Every structure is written in structure tokens, then in C-alpha cells.
Amino acid sequence: MSKFFSNKHSSLTPYVPGEQPSDLSEFIKLNTNESPFPPSSKAVEYALSSTRSLNLYSDPESVALSDALAKTYGVERNMVLATNGSDEILNFAFMAFTDSVNPALYADITYGFYPVFSSLNGSKVEIIPLRDDFTLSVDDYIGKKGTVFIANPNAPTGICVPVSEIERLVKSDRDRVVVVDEAYVDFGGESAIELVHKYDNILVCQTFSKSRSFAGGRLGYGIGSPALISDLNTVKYSTNPYNINSMTSSMGIGILKDEEYTIKNCKTIMENRSFTVKGLEEMGFKVLPSSANFIFVSSDKIEGGEYYRKLKEKKILVRHFDKEKIAPWCRVSIGTKEQMEAYLEATKEILEEKA
Predict the structure, then answer these.
(1) Cα–Cα distance between 68 and 255 in angstroms, integer?
(2) Which parts of the chain are beta strand (E)?
(3) pLDDT 10s per residue in the chain (355 long)?
(4) Which of 1, 22, 290, 313 is deepest in the core (most CB within 10 A)?
(5) CA dist., res. 339 & res. 296, Å (int)
(6) In angstroms, what CA-CA distances link 39 with 73, 132, 258?
């Protein structure tokens, strides 16, 4: 830290991304929840159409992309805000709806960027522990004041809260915002987007990174009432009005025009998830019920950190977290059938070596 660094950020602990090896061909990468499949070929087609205008600023309103998103989800364009990844829409929500008086409420085990955003923005925070089985109960949030942030399905557990429970939370207090982070919802979860037609205090955030194979494109979006989106646009235009580049925006439209490809890939990943869970359970692993493109696993036969290190020695990357409550567990992204077969074989070898 230099002597010039602002005191207001001196205690900031930044988010730590998953390992990104320089030589991807050396590893089977199951640590950052990326899709193992390339984006739709239509994304490339649409990208080429935008290259002629790269000398100009991108559309600050992302009109064409917002129209495509609005059509996809059956909402009006003024209920959509496209952003540079879903992390940006989440940060906007922390900026717009939390402060030193109005706290941010989120789980103790959830997406690691929430504590970073709250610290960055000087937000008051109340941490709500998950239950002993890693489930989230909305009853623990009802009656508390502040903006609620729920990753659904949750990361790193993969467990999903039913939309009926989300609705119960939203309508329990119409004077506070509930932000539902649905980065992984397309892998068997239940989206709360339908609730934006009934309630003006819910913001649903999604991303192109996971189910739409576009993590490198950095494209996300939020859907909510026109008033909420207007608030978030005020923040956007006060930070980075041209937040999405022209090629990314065009590629996003191409991807949305090929939903059949997205659905097919999601189905394959869910099948591979079931295959992997079965193999792990046969080896005595505990696996939490997942509605995401990853699983959360542990075994009495090997400690979580050691399991991560042993897999890395075999050129397979998974994610391990040091937090005490989840230290016995590892998060494993779901890849191709061949990748998951290799992962299961490596796990079998590790357990045999351990024995």
C-alpha cells in the first residue's frame, strides 16, 4: 500500500478470484464456474456487425440489447439495465440502496463480493447465518430493516430458495429492496423475475457468464420496476455511462437469439452434474443439493484443503475456501463429461493413496 492510498479504503479486503492458470491446456479447470462450452456462433456473427462503428462510443442506453432482454423476459425496456457483468449491477445496488444508516443484509456463507461491495461503499452490514444444513430461511430476514441480498442459487453451496419464499420475503416489507442474484438460476433453479410485475421492491440480477458461455464478455443485467432501474441508472451515469462496449452488446443480442443452444448446454451440464454427484456419493462424499453449475462436496476421508491440493497436483483445479464453517468443503464446477470422468478418477486415486 502506498502512502497515497485513501484512508477510507485502507481497511478494504479485495475479492479474490479463482485461480486463472496461464497455461490452460495444463489443467482441467473446475474452479470458477465457467461454462465448458463456447458461446453461440451467433455471438460471433453479431460481433462482426459492430466492428465498423468501434471508432464511436457505444450506446450508453444499450437500446438494442435492452430490447432483446425485455423481449426474452416479458418486461418493458425501462425495467432492464444492462451492465458490465452482474458484478456491476450488484455494486450499483449497494451504492443505490445501502449506506451507513440503511444496512445490507446477506448470509454468512454466500458470494464473496458482497462484503467487498459493502466495505467499498461504506455500507452498514448485518450478517445472517445460514442454517446448520446450509439452507437460507427467509424468516431470518423478515422483520429486519435494510436491503436484502440473496444469491439464489447460493454460492458456494448451490442450494436454491423457492420463489414462493422469495415472494413472502418481498411482500413482508414493501419499504425495503430485495436483491436476488440469479447468476446460476438456469441450471435448475427457479427465477423470481415474474415477481417484478407484482412488486416494486425487488431487483433480479442475472449474467451471461454461466449458462450463456460468455464469462469473458463481461455482460450482466438487472430487471426490476422502472423506478428501481431509474435509481440504478443514476448511479451508472455518475460512474461510467458507456459501461458496455459495442461488440459485447452485439454479441449479447446474438446469444439471446440462440436460446435453444443455451438450453441444450444447460441440460448437458445438469446431466453431467447428476453423473458426478452419483460418482462422488458412491465414494462416500457428502454433496449438497445443487441447482447450479457446480457442486459443494466434502468427505470424512480427506480434509477440504488437502483434497484441493491433491487435485491440483493431478492438474485439476477446484475451489477451496478457508472460512472455518466451510473449510471441510470444496466447490467443484461442472464441465464436460470427459472432464468430470477425469475428476472422479483423480478423486478415486487420491482416496486410495490416502488409505
Answers:
(1) 10
(2) 28-29, 80-83, 104-107, 125-128, 147-151, 178-181, 202-207, 220-223, 286-287, 294-298, 316-317, 319-320, 329-333
(3) 888 988 888 888 888 888 888 777 789 999 999 999 999 999 989 988 888 788 999 999 999 999 999 999 999 999 999 999 999 999 999 999 999 999 999 999 999 999 999 999 999 999 999 999 999 999 999 999 999 999 999 999 999 999 999 999 999 999 999 999 999 999 999 999 999 999 999 999 999 999 999 999 999 999 999 999 999 999 999 999 999 999 999 999 999 999 999 999 999 999 999 999 999 999 999 999 999 999 999 999 999 999 999 999 999 999 999 999 999 999 999 999 999 999 999 999 999 998 8
(4) 290
(5) 17
(6) 20, 38, 10
The rounded distance, in Å, linking the Cα atoms of 316 and 308 is: 9
Radius of gyration of the chain (CA): 21
**pTM exceeds 0.70 for this model:** yes
Going by the DSSP 8-state scheme, the letter that residue 125 receives in this structure is E
Cell 452488446: give the residue: 249
Other C-beta atoms lying within 10 Å of the C-beta of residue 275:
15
Over the range 202-216, which residues count as b (16 or more CB within 10 Å of their CB) and which as e? bbbbbbbbbbbbbbe
Q: CA separation (Å) from 241 to 52, 93, 235? A: 21, 16, 9
Using N-to-C axis directions, what is the helix angle for 85-97 and 226-236, rounded to 10°? 100
